[in-house]
Amino acid sequence: YSFYGRQVVKACVGSSTHHIDISAEPQFMKKMEADFHDEARDKGVMVLRACGFGSIPAEMCLSFLRQHFQGDLDNVESFLAIKEGPQGMKINFGTWQSIIYWLRHCSEFAAVLRDVRGVLFSRPRPPCNWRLPERCFLFRSEVADGWCLPFPGSDRYVMHQSDMLRQQLFGVKPVQVRTYMRAPGFFTGLGLVFLGTIFGLLSLFSGGRWLLERFPGFFSAGKVQRGVPTREQVSSCSFTMTMCGSGWKENPALNSEREGDK
């Protein structure tokens, strides 16, 4: 989508045609919002992004948690666990390329975010009563029942955007969100942190990106190969997503002495 997505969105909006995709690059999605929001709104066109594995499951889990949380939801931690089937697991090469160039342009995200924030959201985000703490790169979670590390997908960004839109339209208070993934074990988690660090550094340089695209299997421990996964691999793999939310019994704005309710 970083290479070809803009042309498709532009053509759809220009011809008053709805657009839906499975993009997962936050900076691409932000740029499309900044460039085509007004025109799409004036023409009554819907541009729906991230409608695949990222980030439909996360949105559904958050919606379910909101409906069943007994109180004022304040923050959410999401834990993704992927189960590999007997046929193994293979990541699409296109997904691999998307991650490479998402990290390549990650430094642009903050600037794009500043440019588009006023275009979409006139209401400022309300102050947090309690800041959700940042976790280590590898930590043990009782909720996920395993070792976890930060999940670099688009889920957190998409849930944040949806929450901000709910605030603008319906006055619903946004929640803080952190997304993580569960590793099969401690040493596997360490390996993922190591590979992720190498991947992130190489993606910043043209020579490094060439290596990542030329030898995807080496830099992904064999999980990425050119081509697509087989039908057997897709059908035998599964995932679970667990969300843990916390908040207050009542809206803390109604009573400043709410520290014990969290």
Keywords:
262 residues, alpha/beta, five-stranded mixed beta sheet, two-stranded parallel ribbon, 45% helix, 16% strand, globular, disordered C terminus
- In N-to-C order, the SSE pattern is HEHEHEHHEEHEHHHHE
Structural class: alpha/beta
Q: What is the overall pLDDT average?
A: 88
User: How many strands in all?
Assistant: 7
Helix content: 40-55%
Number of self-contained structural domains: 1
Q: What overall geometry do the principal axes of the alpha carbons give?
A: globular
Major sheet details = 5 strands, mixed
User: What is the CA-based Rg, rounded?
Assistant: 20 Å
**β-strand amount:** 15-25%
Number of helical stretches of at least 4 residues: 10
* Spatial strand order of the main sheet: 4-5-6-3-7
Unreliable stretches covering 5 or more consecutive residues: 255-260
Cα(first) to Cα(last) distance is 41 Å
Organism: Amblyomma aureolatum
Protein name: Putative conserved plasma membrane protein
InterPro entries: Saccharopine_DH-like_oxidrdct
GO cellular component, one term: lipid droplet
Describe this structure in words.
The protein has one domain (5-252). The chain is globular, with a radius of gyration of 20 Å. It contains 10 helices and 7 strands. The protein has helices at residues 5-14, 26-43, 56-68, 93-104, 109-120, 155-170, 186-202, 206-214, 216-219, 231-236, and strands at residues 19-20, 47-48, 72-83, 139-141, 146-150, 176-182, 238-248. Helix 2 runs parallel beside helix 5 (109-120). It has a 5-stranded mixed beta sheet. A two-stranded parallel sheet has the order 1-2. The protein has 262 residues and is α/β, with parallel strands linked by helices.
